Amino acid sequence: MSERETSTSEVDQLRNSLREKDEEILRLRDLLVGKDVELGVAKGRLAEHEDRAKRLANAKKRVETKVPVLGRLIGPILKLLRGRP
Amino acid sequence: MTPRFSILTPIYETPPGVLRKMLRSVQRQNYDDWELCLVDDGSQQPHVREILDRAQALDPRVRVQHRETNEGIVPTSNEALAMAQGEFVALLDHDDLLHPDALAEVAARLDTDPEIDYVYTDEDKVDTKGLHSAPFFKPDWSPERMRTQMYTCHFSVFRRSLVEEVGGFDAEFEGSQDWDLVLKVTERARKVAHVPRILYHWRMLETSAAGGGEAAKPWAFEAGKRAVQAHCDRIGFPAQVERDPEDPGVLHLEPRLQRRPSVSIVIPTAATVRDVRFEPVVLVVNCVREIVERSSYDNYEIVCVVSEAVPQNVLDELREIAGDRLRLVEFSGPFNFSEKINKGALHSEGEHLLLLNDDIGISTPNWLERLVMYSDFEGIGAVGGRLLWGDGRLQHVGVGFDDGLPGHTYRGFRGEFRGYANAVRIARNTLAVTGACLMTPRAAFDEVGGLTTALPVNFNDVDYCLKLHAKGYRIVYDPDLVLYHYESSSRDTEVREWEEDHLIDRWSGLANPDPFGNPNLRRGMPRLGAYFSWVPRRPPRMATVPKAARAAAQRIAARSE
């Protein structure tokens, strides 16, 4: 009888622990989903910046192709500007 | 054809410098056959009368009327309309500027087709120092866009007889009387044309909508909403118009269906297992469960086109979830998305077909109502929505074409990204929407022969939409239909060269250039050089204007005799 009582309480304990773990998993998954969305925002911003950078690079290439002298001047001017404090 | 243009300009307390510049911008036109109908709405400042009367004395094409009392823009505009004698009327605000080529370009466009009743052009803004900014590069005529954004705005030129037929400017919509007029005119117009060039410069003053936004004219935006609602009621479009909480210039349409036609949701599936929100699920089971549990629409069936490899327990689970709504159609043979959809359509009965990927998640309860609102409306061939990846980034907001090839505009951008000129947040016509979620009337589907089996993997949806477009149907992107697309964002669909060649061979005549893009836009954003596209390409003919004006006036007088 006492053995059976012991085993019943162990099962209950195990069940409780399992339930708690399940809840913890759900909580962590929700957290993960939230973080994934935050990461999504950052990735989205990155995509927007990359798109802009690509456009600027294309424009630079076009200027260099059409007006080679200007293209040759842009580099040193940019370097000069970058060198400023 | 060299039509005469009557430019209608209501005047009220316009600053002298601004008024003179407006007059000069008309007199510098590279096109002579115009008249400027100016009505002063009871301005108290003496310079207004002085400048207007002087302009009239110097140029017979400038005609002026003065009102003793201020009655508002609508009666004043109507008085200017009554003065008009030209075949076409053009709207110009008292503080704005016309590009020297404005009338010449519009006349050239009108010359291409005698059935054009309304023409609009691109525009930008100009500040008090004369600096240009915010160029607005517009698509060709997009009726769905017009219901959520007054995008044609300036420079608008209407056939005068049609403006008179619709009763001119309506005082009920004061502040948005131009939006109302465009809607009324285009309801009856035979053809609408667009000149993709900046030919109008909208002055940014604190007192104008261009500079002050809603704070400057709060009533105007409310009037815009009412004008669109009245338009929807007139044409029987089943929607209630709502304002955007963030942008006063954007409207949203909420479905108010008069009838609830049957819909067949066709889902091709191989019962793929993938992580959805960090939990492995059978995609089709997840999709069907969300449809059944979250949809507020009731008149639908689900047709799952299943591959041979789909295990029995998945089929049992689908039956348990969807019950009588479910129809299972077996498919064997190598993968061919088009064949699967065509087979599913054959085994379905709905008035409308919804092509749906099994990796779609539902987040808008009235998603089917939204789709039906468009799909059930005359002239619309296909409708799709805004698809987001699981992390909230944009996956699909309509398909745009660059150099004849389709692409997902703003793909991978933030979910909150509004797009160029609010393109993500407004309903728009596009050349195509993704087949991941596409509703189409069955009649249209049958008319064009369904999806082409020559394109088994990529571009079959695009090809289908282009077939519809070629038949005169409109394709719609609905921004308020938001769904999740659990495809892998890191996986780029492999497009083969022959698929691109096939599409270009078949459709480059229609899709290059994209009529819903603009020559100054690339991938939905302005090209860098586009910011200078307003710069006049020919020197204005200042010195010759008075002489030309006299000659034109003599010609007009001779013609009227």
What's the short version?
With 85 residues, chain A is mainly alpha-helical. Chain A contains two helices and no strands. In chain A, helix 1 crosses helix 2.
Key traits:
heterodimer; A: 85 residues; mainly alpha; 2 helices; rod-shaped; B: 561 residues; alpha/beta; 9-stranded mixed sheet; 5-stranded mixed sheet; 17 helices; 27 strands
Question: How would you describe this structure to a colleague?
Answer:
The complex is a heterodimer of chains A (85) and B (561). Chain A has 85 residues and is mostly helical. Chain A has helices spanning 2-66, 68-83. In chain A, α1 crosses α2. The longest helix of chain A has 65 residues, at 2-66. The mean pLDDT of chain A is 83. With 561 residues, chain B is an alpha/beta fold. In chain B, the strands form seven sheets. In chain B, strands 1, 2, 3, 4, 5, 6, 7, 8 and 9 form a nine-stranded mixed beta sheet that branches. Chain B has a five-stranded mixed beta sheet with strand order 16-15-12-17-24, with helices on both faces. In chain B, strands 18, 19, 20, 23 and 25 form a five-stranded mixed beta sheet that branches. In chain B, β19 (380-388) and β20 form a beta hairpin. In chain B, α1 runs parallel beside α2 (46-58). Chain B is elongated, with a radius of gyration of 27 Å. At the A-B interface, α1 of A face loops of B.
pLDDT < 50 stretches of chain B: 539-545
Task: State which percent range the strand residues of chain B make up.
Answer: 25-35%
DSSP summary, beta strand count of chain A = 0
The mean pLDDT of chain B is 91
Number of helices of chain B: 17
- Helical content band of chain B: 25-40%
Q: How would you describe the oligomerization state of the chains in this entry?
A: heterodimer
Class from helix and strand fractions of chain A? mainly alpha
Shape designation of chain A: rod-shaped
Give the overall pLDDT of chain A as a whole number. Answer: 83
Radius of gyration of chain A: 31 Å
The count of β-strands of chain B is 27
Helical amount among residues of chain A, as a percent range? over 70%
Unreliable stretches of chain A (pLDDT < 50, length at least 5) are: none
Question: Number of DSSP helices of chain A?
Answer: 2
Shape of chain B: elongated
Structural class of chain B: alpha/beta
Beta-strand residue percentage of chain A:
under 5%
Biggest interface, chains and residue tallies: A-B, 18 and 22 residues
What's the main sheet of chain A like?
none
The span between the termini of chain A is: 85 Å
